[in-house]
Design brief:
about 400 residues, 15 helices, about 5% strand
Length: about 400
């Protein structure tokens, strides 16, 4: 098994440096022998090296894309201030509370200090650094402008994560409305309606049709609530599994989700924003347009745009202008196509694509704010209809009995 494929673990060591002074610390590595070799390369003669004991409770937090964005921003800031790359990693690692992220940073730092290029050391951690990230760092290293490239990557990651957060917020609200409505209705049917049902049995008169329907539904829920719960959980699980395992099913979902009211438009505009952001970042980094389109295809987050960008790539490879091919796909907004056309004609394609990204990120932001404002009264309306409907169903027999007595 190669070092790349082995799992990295933390080791604690004690030894002497080149001057003979005693020192100790932590280092990440895939085996004891490789850790000792890394220490020797750093001029340390190790006396004791052992695996760091894991805590009984808890452990390393998960490393999120937001963590990677913050790490990139910190490295860019350090390098712009003139701090060498290896020293930048040391400074950043000292300020990290997430042990998992700290181990990742020290692992990359040790690779670089032993002679590996920055891009090559990042490629050893594909879970956290995708091909786009590694390719951009590689371009920055080769061009001798790593600090500027890290700044550009940090901006790209920050904007992308912010956009994801907004889209997630837009998706969460409708789900929250449905979930709250289902829970409130279930509680009323299982706990409240049976209390009225026992009261109705003493009436000796036929109940209104609406009340009978609610009572039957309540009886069914009391008997089969666990089946309903398992059914909902099973449906969610199967949907996620099918979307993960079946590319065809995932593509169908992507196609129809864009047709949803409001949500579909938000996802559509966010895909255009990602297209502009990724393509402007890669093209400005000196990546050829055809290769840049490869990176963009997988970054939009939707199969419709992925397929359209693959067709654009084929057109551009055969000599077609980017804006002309975008126009033919019939998925990009007119404004995005026009800005791209201006960029191609003026020779400022990366700047114009960034304007596309900025504009549609702002559009998504406004749409999410509007949806949030709309959803708050909608939640109240949905709950009002459900709760009010059940209350009316329960009090109808009492009103009818009052009229008879009157």
């Amino acid at each position: 098994m190669s070092e790349k494929s082995q799992k990295l673990e933390s080791y604690v060591w004690e030894g002497k440096d080149r001057k003979g002074a005693k020192s100790k610390g932590e280092i990440a590595g895939s085996s004891l022998a490789l850790v000792k070799a890394q220490l020797r390369k750093q001029g340390i003669i190790p006396d004791k090296v052992k695996k760091k004991p894991k805590p009984l409770f808890g452990g390393s937090k998960k490393i999120t894309p937001f963590d990677i964005a913050m790490l990139t921003r910190q490295l860019a800031t350090m390098m712009k201030a003139g701090v060498p790359l290896v020293q930048s990693f040391d400074i950043v690692a000292d300020g990290l509370e997430n042990k998992g992220l700290q181990e990742l940073v020290m692992s990359i730092r040790n690779d670089i200090s032993s002679g590996t290029s920055f891009a090559a050391s990042l490629r050893r951690h594909p879970k956290h650094f995708d091909n786009l990230y590694c390719n951009l760092v590689d371009s920055g290293e080769k061009a001798g402008a790593l600090e500027a490239m890290l700044d550009r990557i940090a901006l790209y990651l920050e904007k992308t994560e912010l956009l994801k957060k907004k889209v997630k917020k837009a998706m969460t609200y409708p789900i929250a409305v449905v979930t709250v409505a289902i829970i409130v209705t279930a509680i009323l049917l299982v706990k409240v309606v049976p209390q009225f049902e026992s009261l109705f049995q003493g009436f000796g008169a036929e109940l209104p049709v609406f009340t009978q329907m609610v009572v039957r539904l309540s009886e069914w829920m009391q008997s089969w609530w666990f089946v309903v719960l398992l059914g909902i959980a099973g449906t969610i699980f199967l949907f996620k599994e099918a979307k993960t395992r079946s590319q065809k099913f995932s593509d169908i979902v992507d196609k129809y989700v864009l047709k949803l009211p409001v949500i579909g438009e938000i996802l559509d505009k966010s895909a255009v924003a990602k297209f502009g952001r990724v393509l402007s970042t890669t093209f400005a980094a000196g990546v050829p347009l055809v290769d840049a389109l490869d990176s963009v295809a997988g970054a939009t987050g939707n199969a419709i745009y992925r397929d359209a960008i693959q067709r654009i790539k084929a057109d551009v490879s055969s000599g077609t202008q980017l804006q002309a091919s975008m126009r033919q796909q019939d998925v990009f907004p007119v404004m995005a196509v026009q800005l791209t056309a201006i960029g191609e004609e003026s020779g400022n394609l990366d700047e114009m694509l960034e304007k596309v990204a900025v504009h549609y990120e702002a559009v998504v932001d406004d749409m999410v704010d509007n949806l949030t404002a709309l959803m708050e009264p909608m939640i109240m309306a949905v709950l009002g209809v459900l709760v009010g409907g059940l209350i009316i169903a329960m009090y109808l027999p009492i009103f009818q009995m009052g009229q008879v007595v009157g």
